[in-house]
Specification:
Layout (H helix, E strand, L loop, with lengths): L13 E2 L3 E5 L5 H7 L16 H13 L7 E9 L5 E10 L4 E8 L8 H15 L5 E6 L4 H9 L3 E7 L2 E7 L19
Parallel strand pairs: 5-6
Antiparallel strand pairs: 1-2, 2-3, 3-4, 4-5, 6-8, 7-8
Helix pairs in contact: 1-2, 3-4
Amino acid sequence: MTDPAPRPEHAEHIRTASLELSPLAVEHAEEMAGVLADPALYRFTGGEPSTPEELRARYRRLVAGSPDPAVVWHNRVLRLRDGGRLVGTVQATVTGSRTVAEVAWVVGTPWQGRGLATEAAREWIAWLTGRGGVRTVIAHIHPDHRASAAVAAACGLAPTGELQDGEVRWRLTLPAGQGSTTYHCRTDFPRT
């Protein structure tokens, strides 16, 4: 079976000081299985580490894109620019006439505490808001997941008080006409 090629809107590589956010590919499954192998990563989200085979099947579905034409999936792996090692992922599900993005991020346990999640999430949100219309960014974060809450806050999201499946909904809504050229994240939060 031939793995699907990424769609053109998913092919852009995004660079930060420390990372390259590269389009997800089925070929990343083997290395990402190691990155995501620590059961502690699932403490707040549930689930357990996936095998390389399970990740390959999941990545095949993600790369193929959403079966709903009103929904666009964007998925990137996080690769260290120094050394080229994969260390995590960022994701977005874009809906609402492409104006609302639900985002998520994960950094493998060995690379946590270095500010990589914040660096990736900042650039990811700036890319989404600068790519033609995303005005509202949402993240769902377990109330006890302080590191992820700090990342969201550093990127300008604020808790709404709304709960979904036991997670707090965080939201950033940009005023009309504001995009990545004027979007700024706070930088005075602890490195996560």
